[in-house]
Structure formats: C-alpha cells, structure tokens
Amino acid sequence: MTARTSSVLLFVCLYNKKRESNIQLTPSFFFSWKQMESVSFPLLSRVAICGGTHGNEMTGVYMMRHLQKEKIDKIGSVSVSTVLSNPRAVEVCRRYVETDLNRCFTEALLNSPVTDSTPYELRRAQELNAQIGPKGSKEAVDLLIDIHNTTSNMGLCLIFYSIDWFTLHILKYLQSKMTSVEVRAIQLDIPISEAYSLESVGKHGFAIEVGPQPNGVVRADIYNMVKEAVDHVFSWLQEFNSGSTFEEGEVEAYTLVKSIDYPRNPVTGEITAAIHSQLQDNDFKLLQRGDPIFLSFSGETVKNRAAAIICRGKDMRAR
Ligand SMILES: [Zn+2]
C-alpha cells in the first residue's frame, strides 16, 4: 500500500449548531437580517453543474453525460453549463491522473505560470477557471454546483465555504423537500482566496457530496437522490428569479474540528486497523468518550479518548 492509498482518515466534526435567524430572501433579491436590514443581490441567471471532478465518483460523471447528451443548456430562466471536470481521470476511472483537481482552485495555483512540468489537473483547473470563472470576477457563473460521491454513509451533504445566504436557503429548501433523506451541511472555514475546490470558482457555490457509493460504481438510489436535489435547486432558482419571498429560518451546519489518522505501523506507516464495526456507517452520530473507533487487525479495540464528538468515517480520497 503506498503512502497515498493509506491516507485514510477518520473525519471528526464537532456538532456546531449555527443559528441563522431572521433571514429573509425577498423577490427584489434582498435578504433581511434582523430589523429589516437588507442587502441586494442580482439574479442568479448563470449556473454551472460539474461532475467528474474526481474521475471515479460516478454520479456526477453519468449525470453530466446525460445532460450533455440531452443538450441541456437552459432550465427555465437559468442558463446552464454542464461540465465534465476531469475527462482524463474519468477515462481511466481514477480520482485523478497527476494531482487532485479539487485542490487546484486556490488563487495562487490558478494564477501560477504553466510550464512543461505543470500537472495535467492544474492546467485543467486553469482552463475551467477561464471557462466558468474567473474566480472572484464578475464574469464568473452565479452559482456553481459540483457533484461528488463518498464511500462513507453520509446521505446528502452540501459543502461550502463562507456563510452564504443562497446556499443556506437552498439547504433549507432541500431539507423541506427531501424528507426521505438526511440533508446536512458542512462549512469549511477557509478564506475564498485559499479555497481549493471547484465550487469556489462561482460567485456562489457548493459541492453536493452523496454516499455511500463505492468508487467506480453508480448506484441508482444515489443517482436519483442527486437528481432530485439538483431538480429542487433549479425549482428554488426559478422561485428566486421570479420574485417569490422566502421565509426566515434556521439551518444547522457542521464544521470540521480535526481529522484522526488510522493507527499505523510506526516503521512502515502501514495502516494497522479498520474502522470499528460499531462506528462503521454511523456517520454524524454522537461518539462518546470511550466508544470504539478502530479495530486493529490483531483484534484490539481503539477507543475515542476525546469528549463527545460527531464522527464521519471517511476515506479521504472519496471527496
Ligand atoms: Zn470527490
């Protein structure tokens, strides 16, 4: 097992309930924040949907192929760009070919000079930035949705950077419409210039991460869950662009506290344990101090030594 394939981590999220009250999004593209303090927003008329940013996460790959075959370029009032982000990685059904495309969208990397030694994915990131960005500019698409899969049992999760009223309202809308699935959110607290993933190229953006789905496999239930979510996002956009009023509300978001690496052989670095069966598939459930986390291959249980936390058992290569 190489160093890269052994980079399997336990992702730990502190349950951090962020209460966003008194938020209203009004037909004139305002939202109200306490005492009717308001900010104006323009229409969301240009949207990019991306899949295959990781070439072995098949929901987005098949969705892009389908949308491109159907030549979908407009849904209601919204013009739509469908993007197969990493075609070379898709071709070989691997996460990436030379470097992780979804770590290439920092401002520094997007503006770095291209040389003979520039990895394919960094070139591709700069191409995508020219096509649906540039990041941070007024030419960038209004909303960028990037579809990912994970091997972990996390249901449907929006991942986004800074607090963004559009994303919060879309999250609330999805939660109200998709009652048979848990719709959650993770906020990555990283400045947008340092934000490394594709959704940071849009004026607004989020990743939809859905699992469990093995890499290289397409499951109908997962595909349909994402299709339903995307359909709802476009319904919300139609409502917003046509002037509906959105009620104030609350949403919850998780934030990352830390990652816990697998137990390893100190000499070889090889992983010496698997996720414990009591934790496996129990993403987003409260893990108490003393609860099992890992089971070593010699049968020893490794317990949680921290205070109660919410865990997400995750293969780091799955996002
Ligand atoms: Zn991914």
Q: What is the name of the CATH class of the largest domain?
A: Alpha Beta
What global shape is seen? Answer: globular
Main-sheet strand order equals 6-7-5-8-11-9-10-12-1-17-14
Radius of gyration: 20 Å
- Average pLDDT confidence is 84
Number of helices: 6
Low-confidence segments, given as residue ranges, are 1-36, 313-319
- Please indicate the count of domains: 2
Corresponding CATH architecture of the largest domain: 3-Layer(aba) Sandwich
Total beta strands: 17
Quaternary organisation? single chain
Termini Cα gap: 20 Å
Bin the helical content: 10-25%
Task: Give the secondary structure arrangement, pairings included.
Layout (H helix, E strand, L loop, with lengths): L8 E6 L8 E3 L4 E4 L3 E4 L5 E6 L6 H12 L4 E2 L2 E7 L2 H5 L15 H4 L9 H13 L10 E7 L5 E6 L4 H13 L5 E5 L16 E8 L8 H23 L11 E8 L11 E3 L10 E2 L4 E5 L4 E3 L5 E6 L5
Parallel strand pairs: 5-7, 5-8, 8-11, 9-10, 10-12
Antiparallel strand pairs: 1-12, 1-17, 2-3, 3-4, 6-7, 9-11, 13-15, 14-17, 15-16
Helix pairs in contact: 5-6
GO molecular function, one term: metal ion binding
Main location: membrane
Cofactor: Zn(2+)
Descriptive keywords:
319 residues; alpha/beta; Aminopeptidase; N-terminal domain of TfIIb; 2 domains; eleven-stranded mixed β-sheet; three-stranded antiparallel β-sheet; 17 strands; disordered N terminus; disordered C terminus; binds zinc ion
